[in-house]
Specification:
Shape: elongated
CATH superfamily of one domain: Isoleucyl-tRNA Synthetase, Domain 1
CATH architecture of one domain: Orthogonal Bundle
Structural class: alpha/beta
Helix content: 40-55%
Largest sheet: 7 strands, parallel
Number of helices: 18
Bound molecules: 5'-O-[(L-methionyl)-sulphamoyl]adenosine
Radius of gyration: 26 Å
CATH class of one domain: Mainly Alpha
Mean pLDDT: 96
Amino acid sequence: MAEASSFYITTPIFYVNDVPHIGHAYTEVAADVLARWHRQAGDDTWMLTGTDEHGQKILRTATANGVTPQEWADKLVADAWIPLLETVDIANDDFIRTTDARHEANVQKFLQKLYDDGHIYTGEYEGYYCVGCEEYKQESDLVAGTGEYEGQQVCAIHSKPVELLHEKNYFFRTSAFAERLLALYEERPDFVQPESARNEVLGWVRSGLADLSISRSTFDWGVKVPWDETHVVYVWFDALLNYITAVGYGQDDDEFSRRWPAQHIVGKDILRFHAVIWPAMLMAAGLEVPKGVFGHGWLLVGGEKMSKSKLTGIAPEQITSTFGSDAFRYYFMRAIAFGQDGSFSWEDLAARYQAELANGFGNLASRVVAMINRYCDGVVPRQGALEAADIEIGAVERRATDASWQAIDRIAIHEAIGAAWELVDALNGYLTAEEPWALAKDPERRDRLETVLATAYRGLGTLAVLLSPVLPKATAKLWTALGAPGTVQDARVDLAYEAELGERVAPLEALFPRVEVAE
Ligand code: MSP
């Protein structure tokens, strides 16, 4: 048998200065949906997420709260970032913290190699720095401040003044990789996705690359530079390396070659780090560049990126406590074209929950299971002579399976769900047209009734498999009600239309119960 192909997917690692909001959960869910899809297609899948714990931002937050940065990070990880995974039902394979020994030791190893190979030199940085972004800024990255910062230049993302640094630092010769980066984008047009992100990256690199300061010497919360302990590694240089230290770089070559390279999912605000600096670092170390970098859009509030620092963050539990984790996952993956910005609204969420999940999918499942219980004593009937409508349902099952898998391959998550939903709509239309409840009243039409219910049952089985990466809880319940063997996650999603189902159905509670939305 051919070896399963490796699929390694990552989320950015999250700053622990604050608790998560739905923008962070959005990144997690997208990576998780892709991971679950690939896992269920038989790929050797690995999903990594974690936390970014060094740097000035965390240090200042901890100090302001009267604790050490390590204490602060430990608390936030335990109380907020690990619980987020459960809140939105993430099935990650690993969770890395940049304070893990496996990470710190191998950051030093990587850096020492670059130093020994001549990619690092001593220099002086004089310029702006935004602690919110943990990023060196150019004059052109700044905008005029408003309100309390009127008259000052502020960071365009955080709307807060930047700091002026003047430090002796170590620099990474990023500029030496400009040509190789341009060749990479040229040879692999899907290295940076979507197209808009790729164009932006091309623009940056074509307009010239500056070398990057990769150490700081005015505070000590970070990984020590191995040859000069008066410096700590710049937090981004440290953080990007999580993607390889988590899969064995520097300590487990077999694991590393099994997993690496990864597909990275990141927000578009951190595209430059992932699509320019990170591949340059890997090239310098003689390692393979990532499989790809997908830059998704932002969740917006009032036209601006939702953020805690601007007090526009919504906690994921505010949504999941009412609607559940499945609805959270479905809503954000379906309503926003993956790669574009999107606005969240309670009205839109509640409307889609009712129309698509409760009435569209949930009600379909309840009706089919209830009719098999009622008209066939729970025994799944067999298809008899097929009519055109029954054959068409089989064809839709196949089309939906193929189209959703192709969309996942392109990282078009919203299209994958849309393709699966064609089957929801087709099955609802089929029931309306065939009226099994009317057939049930006529004993002469028993064969037809059984064929219709058997066809609908098969369609539901296909749907359960197809939607399981997005709606893991509801589809697990449905799978049990269908009496199908094993768990729905064991069924191949790329072959959903031929999933092995069961003989007897069990009662099914409402998959998406009515909710009362407090205004
Ligand atoms: N620590 C860095 C990443 C290092 S990766 C080597 C970081 N952390 S973050 O916590 O600020 O952001 C993590 C992710 O959340 C980013 O992909 C960011 O784009 C995403 N989001 C933060 N706010 C967001 C929205 N309002 N909408 C969508 N995603 C957003 O950056």
